[in-house]
Amino acid sequence: MLRITTGITAGDRLSAVRAAVAGAGAALLALGLLSGCASGSSDGAAPGAGGSGSASATPGGDESAGSQGSGGSSGGSLEADVAQLWLLTSITDDQGTLAPPTVSATLDLREDGRFSGNGGCNGFGADVKVGDSGHVTVGPIVSTKRACAERSANEQETRYLAALQKADAVKRSGDGLIVSGDGIQLVYAPDATKSAGPKTDGDQPS
């Protein structure tokens, strides 16, 4: 009987099986490593994304707080019957009472958030915060620096502006106006030559 020899022994078959198993194991190991890397990248990106969201939220919160602060700083307005030009009739301070004034002086309340006028020799102005019941907080008064012709006029202006700087309340008294503060009182009469309400072009305090 004719015998055909293939040349493949049992040992060769076993080696081939082992090689196939080893190759499959290596492929599974590589796949596992790739999955681990992908998972690590995803986990690493999450904190970064979370951190970015947190950082953008913080400035947003600060901006909101800043906006609320700005809104809280805005003041009110004086009563409509106060918003006109007033003529000074007397000054009371730690030096006593000066009435009537040596020279004409004014207080203009026709601009919201502003005191302005003439001290007798120089024009002046100051920002004012208006609270409830006529309470006011006067900012630094700025004036021109023209010298008064008379010493008495200069002394009056100095007293007037110093008293006005201390003012913390403004109220009507009959037809007049009283501005008061710590140790001071300024009394005014309305200036009939100037209209009440907002200033118009060319309508400046005298």
UniProtKB/TrEMBL annotation:
<feature type="region of interest" description="Disordered">
    <location>
        <begin position="44"/>
        <end position="77"/>
    </location>
</feature>
<dbReference type="InterPro" id="IPR038670">
    <property type="entry name" value="HslJ-like_sf"/>
</dbReference>
<feature type="compositionally biased region" description="Low complexity">
    <location>
        <begin position="54"/>
        <end position="67"/>
    </location>
</feature>
<feature type="domain" description="DUF306">
    <location>
        <begin position="84"/>
        <end position="181"/>
    </location>
</feature>
<dbReference type="InterPro" id="IPR005184">
    <property type="entry name" value="DUF306_Meta_HslJ"/>
</dbReference>
<dbReference type="InterPro" id="IPR053147">
    <property type="entry name" value="Hsp_HslJ-like"/>
</dbReference>
<dbReference type="Pfam" id="PF03724">
    <property type="entry name" value="META"/>
</dbReference>
<protein>
    <submittedName>
        <fullName>META domain-containing protein</fullName>
    </submittedName>
</protein>
